[in-house]
Amino acid sequence: MSKRIIYQCLGVAFLASCLSACVVPVKVVEKNASKNTPESFNNSQDSTNTAKTKWKDYFTDPNLASLIETALSNNQELNITLQEIEISQNEIKAREGEYLPFVRLGGGAGVEKVSRYTSKGASDDMSEIKPGKRTPEILPDVYFGASASWEVDIWHKLRNARKVAVMNYLASIEGKNFLVTNIVSEIANSYYELMALDNQLEIVQKNIGILNSALSIIKQEKEAAKVTELAVRRFEAEVFKAQSLQYEIQQKIVETENRINFLVGRFPQRVQRDSQQFHSLVPNKILAGLPSQLLENRPDVRQAELKLEAAKLDISVARANFYPSLGLSAFVGIRAFNPLLLANIPAALVSSLAGDMIGPLVNKRAITATYKNASAKQIQAVYDYERTILNAYIEVTNQLSNIDNLEKNYAMKSKQVEALTKSNDISLKLFTSARADYMEVLLTQRDVLDSRIELVETRMKQMNALVNTYRALGGGWK
């Protein structure tokens, strides 16, 4: 058989292996995400959006603004996220370096003893041909030079891997923005809750004073035999109940302050606030804009979109594993069996250049599984993206409805407090003139306390709804 036929057979075998390696055994269909959103919120076509307002302009309370400013510098979770962004940025550099040539500089030394009964040993034994020219049995080897290797990215596998790293880096930035939004809203909600608790504590303390005054009157009435011991005990029990509620509120104040301190990244201390201004707080007017603006304003939506793009590129990277890879390697340096001969140039110069193309031929289970996993993750990313959009729209819709209902609720609560306050004054006058039972005074006073506390809670819920709507629209991270 001639050499030509042998070379032809080897060439056919090589091409067959390459063609076999290029076959992708599993066809994967990429799922496209739907970006469709309803046309409007509550049939409004106004595109003005409160989310574009910076948080410093949205929260005008200087104490609250100071807390947010400190949290954006000291919050531990946010600082951890910033380090994750740094890690993602370094990952881009690592992926970029994979498709560039690797050049190394180094050297080595060693000794080798070759058996005379091998082909190399027999060829080194020149004693039979030229007496005295026999190669030494133990031969040193010293070399120094530069080596290079490069995987030619013919299928863009390595470049797509770098693009995946870029997408993940951008997604980590959006994750940081979403965390900032949540931190801002959580501090604002806790701050308004703290102001509400201060006002509730003041209401309870005033109520304790009123109950003590009423208790004194009841005791005088008992001495005059106008009421029994039962009335005294009932009023004393009501005083104890109010005092117990006072301590509960004080504990809530401590916990709320420390929740804010944790978010701000500091040890427990008093949170500066002006709770006297709580009832004069005027809820801001929220402009929801259009639902399609959520795709631009919400960091979590943009993060999900970037992860979806990364998942699509991961499929391309996994697909490229089925194709043969082309690698080049080279070496340039000096080499000799005696270190003193290394300087003998060009005789000591050594160089090499090689290329190889390798592709999978048999047992592709690992790369096939990787390919299928990439496809499944891409479909997961599609569903996650669509779910994030749906959740964003529902959050905004719920909060807009909440704002409207809380406004009406606060108006009714205000009228309730006004009516009960008047009835309380009337019940006290009737009781002192012996025209009303002590139970009417007691129950009326209890209703007044409950209604005032509920009014404060409703105002707090109003402020929280404004904060949550601002967050749901995508505000707070700019």
Total domains: 2
Major beta sheet, specifics? Answer: 4 strands, antiparallel
Helical/strand content category: alpha+beta
CATH architecture of the largest domain: Up-down Bundle
Q: Could you please say which CATH topology of the largest domain applies here?
A: Outer membrane efflux proteins (OEP)
The proportion of strand residues reads 5-15%
Fraction of helical residues: 55-70%
The shape is elongated
Mean pLDDT: 88
How far do the termini sit from each other?
77 Å
Provide the spatial order of strands within the biggest beta sheet: 1-2-3-4
The helix tally amounts to 11
Work out the radius of gyration: 40 Å
Number of strands: 4
Instruction: Report the order of strands and helices.
Output: HHHHEHEHHHHEEHH
Tell me the name of the CATH homologous superfamily of the largest domain.
Answer: Outer membrane efflux proteins (OEP)
Weakly predicted, low-confidence segments: none
> What is the level 1 CATH name of the largest domain?
Mainly Alpha
Your description of this structure?
Residues 68-95 form a coiled coil. The protein is of the alpha+beta class and 478 residues long. The chain has 2 domains: 24-99 and 154-321 and 362-472, Outer membrane efflux proteins (OEP); 101-152 and 325-358, Outer membrane efflux proteins (OEP). The chain is 62% helix and 10% strand. The protein is built from 11 helices and 4 strands, in the order ααααβαβααααββαα. It has a 4-stranded antiparallel beta sheet with strand order 1-2-3-4, with no helix packed on it. Helix 6 packs antiparallel against helix 9, helix 7 runs parallel beside helix 11 (438-472) and helix 9 (299-320) runs antiparallel to helix 10 (365-432). The relative contact order is 0.16. The mean pLDDT is 88.
